[in-house]
Here is the input.
Amino acid sequence: MMRITCVLAVAGVVGLAATAAFGAFDGENGKIAFASNSHGPDFDIWTMNPDGSGLVNLTKDSKGDEFAPSWRDDGRVLAFNSDRVTDTNPEADHEIFVMRADGSQVRQITSNALDDEDPSWSPDGRRIAFARDLDPVRGEVDYDLYTMDADGSRQQNLTNSPGVVDFQPSWSPDGRRLVFLSDRDGDLEIYTSDPHGADVRQLTFNDAAEFVPGWSPDGTRIVFATDRDDGNFEIYTMRADGGAQTRLTSHAAGEGYPAWSPDGAQIVFATERDGAPELYTMRAGGGDEVRRTTDRGTDIHPDWQPLP
Here is the structure.
């Protein structure tokens, strides 16, 4: 099994590292944020220019792992999850943090004995959707979807689904829908709901696993990774209602973690075609695949900064 496939499986099912879902906000293309252990031993949040230049480690002072950077709609703030030890996180479980785009003013906004992962900003920047693992046993998961205010207050459980894994939420650009993953039909499929967890609609129906769904900036399409092609993860898009599912990549290596550019013209994704997972960009319809990171570490969880 390819490493990126293992990362996806471990992250999504075992819960050792979050697999974020990314929706794009409309705007000019800014920097790409991502998680990397290129300077080890832990994962940090990095940013780079779309061409791969200008690399900056935003969390270099943290001794924990940081994953799942998510840009706010104005491109000025990032949410992410981290297992760093803090005064309110002595057990080093994953909590949600926010920071400025330059890595300053880091604030922890969740604090409990459970893992909080996969943050996704609402289009107005007032709410954050996330996944909470309600099973405190390490190696076992029972994710529910939650939302909270941007300061961590007013937390609400949207799915209330004991024994069902609901995770990787991503807010639609118009704020009317959440797309997420769930195993409620026996395997991992893509669903949408309204922001309160009601009006749930299933979009994919197969025996394969889907991962990391994210909205296009115009809200008409969803990008995702799936292993429906002989067990090998590839990047697909589909309409927001689940129709017109289209394969974009075709490679023997594992591919995953796709995210749209704010102008809707490109998709950034991770691939193992060069060994360890590196980040590539391609046209939104597939093609013109260009390598953007060139390190020896694992580069995953990209999210593209919108510049209003």
Q: What stands out?
A: The longest helix spans residues 3-14. The chain is about 5% helix and 45% strand.
